[in-house]
Amino acid sequence: MNDADRPRDPRTSGRRLIDLVASGERRRRLRLVQWLIATLVYAGTAMLLLAGVHQGWMCAASVHAWMGFIAAVQLASYIALRSGWSERSRDPSLTIWQLGLGVVAVNWGYLICGPMRTSALFPLMVIFAFGAFALRWRQIAMLTAFAVASLVAAVALRTVHPEWATSEHVVDPFRVDVNNVLMILVVLPALAVIAARLSSLRQKLRDQRTALGAALAQVERLAVSDELTGLPNRRSMQAELERSIATSERGIAPFCVGILDIDHFKAVNDELGHAAGDAVLRNVACLGREQMRGTDVLGRWGGEEFLLVTPGGTDAMTAVLARIRKAVAAGAHPRRRVTLSAGVAVHRAGEDADALLARADRALYRAKHAGRDQVAIDGD
User: Fold this and answer.
1) What percent of the chain has pLDDT over 90?
2) Does residue 17 carry a pLDDT above 80?
3) SS3 363
4) Residue 87 annotated to the active site
């Protein structure tokens, strides 16, 4: 069977027709949806004006002229939007142009509506609701001034040239009320659609703000945390050292640092694989956190090295290290005993972080050289 002989899916044909009329490009289609809402409001208003002609309180020629103006404006807007010509301008939605002509149409309607002219102003609500999406406050202020000025001009025309306006007739108050209700029925659905879109935009903004906050929190966490172990990273530990040194220099609390190194970690990677090595690093971090006091800080210093900062002297540090080393040996890996070597140094008055870490590193070297799986204290 040839492609031409196959039955066409009506849904596909329908989508093609929609794309042809409303465009398949998302932003262009959204602009055309806004154009359609305005067109429906104009169409509903035109029906009410024609009803006024039928009832004898409006001039047919005036209504036909108004409808011709609206038809020309909306057709030109559709062509500019659908063809993409409007996208070459700074206002691709033609918002200012369409709203300005909408104000002209509303006040023109006020001029020709005779005893029903008050209801002709209702579509201004739709115009300014549309403006809230795309106009800056200065543009809204200018549109407001234009609306007021053109309304004053329409009132002046009715006063100076009464023959230009529809002749006044006495209309039953109930008919006025019915006309007002009908105009509201034309305007409110458009306002409801705009309000729904505004609500959707607010929800989207809230979702984006929530996502942005979560992303920012993640960035901040990654900036100070080690991604593999969840411990404070090197940058965070350097800041912790500076804080501890400042506290120690004020005579508030002495402190110790300990550099911990996993013994034979390369052999762990070689024998068990890098995934197992990463698991060992995570387990050491988790077990180390569980054995610390609330005032101790453990961070990943780099590779298989960790840095421990504890307030107090070497007795407190060695006690914490003993608990960590015992927990790591028992539970860091189910098939291999993992041991730690550590070098400890107590901060001295006037000593900076680099000098303190250098002494701890030398102590670690002594622990490694002495056979590993032990703690060496600088100065011993």
Assistant:
1) 44
2) no
3) helix
4) no
pLDDT score at 43: 92
Residue where the block lists tokens 């031409």: 4
Contact between 81 and 98 (Cβ < 8 Å):
no
Question: How do the residues of the chain divide into helix, strand and coil, expressed in percent and rounded to 5?
Answer: 70, 10, 20
Partners of 342 in the beta sheet? 260, 375
Number of neighbours of residue 57 by Cβ within 10 angstroms: 20
Burial class of residue 188 (count of CB atoms within 10 Å of its CB; 0-12, 13-18, 19+) = middle
SS3 labels along 235-251: HHHHHHHHHHHHHHHCC
36: enclosing H helix or E strand: helix 26-55
pLDDT digits (tens, 9 = 90+) for 61-74: 889 999 999 999 99
293/110 Cα distance (integer angstroms): 80
Largest CA distance in the chain: 113
**Residues 216-232: tens digit of each pLDDT:** 887 877 778 998 999 99
Reply yes or no on whether the pLDDT at 22 is more than 90.
no
Helix (H) or strand (E) run with residue 274 in it: helix 274-291
At 262 the three-state DSSP class reads strand
Q: Provide mean pLDDT across the span 197-219.
A: 86
Structure tokens at 94: 């033609």
CB-based contact 345:363 (threshold 8 Å): yes
Q: CA-to-CA distance for 61 and 200, rounded, in angstroms?
A: 42
How many C-beta neighbours within 10 Å does residue 193 have?
A: 17
Of the residues 227, 290, 304, 351, which is catalytic? Answer: 304
Tokens of 361: 């590193």
Q: Residue 10: what pLDDT?
A: 52
Distances (CA, A) of 152 to 63, 87, 180, 324: 21, 34, 22, 85
pTM for the whole structure: 0.56
Rounded CA-CA distance 156/170 in Å is 22
Nearest CA to 120 among 105, 110, 129?
Answer: 110
pLDDT, one tens digit per residue, over 363-380 is 999 999 999 999 999 976
List, in order of start, the domains of the chain with CATH numbers: 10-216 (no CATH), 234-377 (3.30.70.270)
